[in-house]
Design a protein that fits this description.
Elements (H helix, E strand, L loop, with lengths): L6 H5 L1 H12 L24 H5 L13 H4 L11 E11 L2 E6 L16 E5 L2 E15 L2 E19 L3 E4 L5 E4 L2 E20 L4 E21 L20 E22 L5 E8 L3 E10 L8 E9 L3 E10 L4 E10 L5 E3 L15 E12 L5 E12 L8 E12 L3 E9 L3 E11 L1
Antiparallel strand pairs: 1-4, 1-21, 2-3, 4-5, 5-8, 6-7, 8-9, 9-10, 10-11, 10-12, 11-14, 12-13, 13-16, 14-15, 15-17, 17-18, 18-19, 19-20, 20-21
Length: about 425
């Protein structure tokens, strides 16, 4: 039978799903679906080494050139023109499910030896400029232009497929397909922002962002190396002839989005800040190709939309000890839901990862030696990351530390952010003119 002879089969998602279930020997309702969307590794910390030293709790401080991104209302706190440049080093080791068992007891055969889920790590590093901005204050107004590398990473994962206990087949051991996945994502933003000081207590800010996004994902599913029953428990070699399916999502484009912020200073010591940052959206394509291991042929193509998350932030900052000590805290709401949207049709069964909105919690402190010239400042911070897309709903705790040196016309800040899955080091330079 040729592909031309099978249009009714391929256009019926229920029949196609049933065929997949039958070919894999899986119970209906299992996770085996033809199109998968992998996890994305985001970090929404504000730019700048000073902000990083505070654990990213900067929306209520926003007192240097990075306010153009973090909270444009804070730009009015700058009394002199500033040029700011930041470079960062990222070391990533995100975890992924590489094998093991979803449930049941391991058989002890082949790779079925772990009683629970087995994790692997994909390790990568990147270094380069991440933020640059120029701020020009003028009376009650301040103006800024900036560039920001919002995301840049490559991730490759490989899973042997989870074993599970199949209750529908007299407790026969089942196995999900082995997978190979790759994600490449780069997001660069150019923005303009302005801040307006209404009075001594209230300031407002607004910004326009032009973002350029490139996304490529590829996910391939494979069955065991042969049909021999013993191969059910053996390692999968990812043979081309045993490929079940290949799915891919690509998106490449530009978009304009808005940012806004408010800064309220009810007293000389206390400051409160709010900001909202809209994510850009780009159109793309989702494609599925059925692999040679199935008794059908088929290629499917649907529209996809990649929507960068919106971020809403609220924070407080408190200064005491004649300005030597500063405490800051911040809560971020990140709308991961709708991150990848695929237009479903009768030609394609979509099993996208269920992204959910998430909360990040940040806190930091700074102690400055004001009697010194130049001023020397020490910072510590902590924040809890909920990435909103992990199938295990994991949270990660980040620990931060930093220091800064500030003179009349310059400021140098260094900070590090350390967690289980990603470490980063930031160096920022500020020149006032």
């Amino acid at each position: 039978m040729t592909c031309r002879d099978r249009p009714s089969l391929l256009r019926n998602p229920y029949l196609f799903a049933a065929l997949l279930v039958a070919s894999l020997g899986l119970p209906e309702g299992s996770e085996a679906q033809p199109l998968t969307i992998p996890r994305f590794d985001f970090s929404f910390s504000n730019p700048g080494a000073r902000s990083l030293g505070f654990g990213g709790a900067f929306v209520a401080l926003a007192d240097d050139a990075t306010a153009a991104f973090a909270n444009p209302a804070g730009l009015v706190q700058l009394t002199e023109a500033e040029l700011s440049v930041e470079v960062r080093l990222w070391s990533r080791s995100p975890s992924f499910i590489s094998g093991g068992r979803r449930d049941g007891e391991p058989s002890g055969n082949g790779v079925d030896t772990a009683a629970g889920i087995v994790f692997g790590r994909d390790r990568s590093e990147d270094f380069g400029p991440s933020f640059v901005s120029v701020v020009i204050p003028k009376g009650k107004w301040s103006w800024a232009v900036y560039g920001h590398q919002m995301a840049k990473f490559e991730q490759t994962v490989e899973s042997q497929g989870l074993f599970f206990e199949d209750d529908t087949a007299a407790h026969r051991t089942g196995r999900l397909p082995a997978t190979q996945e790759r994600v490449d994502l780069e997001v660069t933003a150019l923005g303009v922002a302005t801040g307006w000081k209404m009075n001594e207590r209230w300031s407002f800010g607004l910004g326009l962002v032009f973002s350029d996004t490139t996304l490529t994902t590829r996910s391939e599913a494979f069955l065991t190396d042969d049909l021999n029953p013993a191969a059910q428990f053996g390692g999968v070699s990812f043979l081309p002839e045993r490929r079940l399916s290949t799915s891919a999502v690509t998106a490449d484009g530009t978009d304009f989005s808005l940012t806004g912020g408010i800064l309220w200073q009810p007293s000389d010591r206390l400051t409160a800040g709010l900001s909202y940052r809209q994510g850009g959206e780009v159109d793309g394509v989702a494609q599925l190709e059925v692999g040679p291991v199935l008794p059908v042929d088929g290629q499917f193509r649907n529209k996809a939309v990649f929507d960068l998350p919106d971020v809403a932030s609220a924070g407080l900052a408190y200064r005491f000890g004649e300005g030597r000590m500063t405490l800051a805290a911040e809560v971020d709401r990140i709308t991961y839901s709708g991150l990848v949207r695929i237009s479903e049709s009768a030609d394609l069964i979509v099993d996208g990862r269920e992204y959910r909105d998430a909360w990040d919690y940040r806190a930091g402190a700074e102690y400055a030696l004001l009697q010194r010239s130049p001023i020397l400042a020490f910072r510590v911070g902590i924040w809890i990351e909920d990435n909103g897309q992990d199938v295990l709903n994991e949270e990660f705790t980040h620990v931060n530390a930093g220091l800064g040196v500030a003179g009349e016309t310059f400021q140098v800040d260094l900070a590090g952010d350390f967690s289980e899955e990603i470490d980063s080091v930031s160096l920022s330079l500020i020149y006032r003119f």
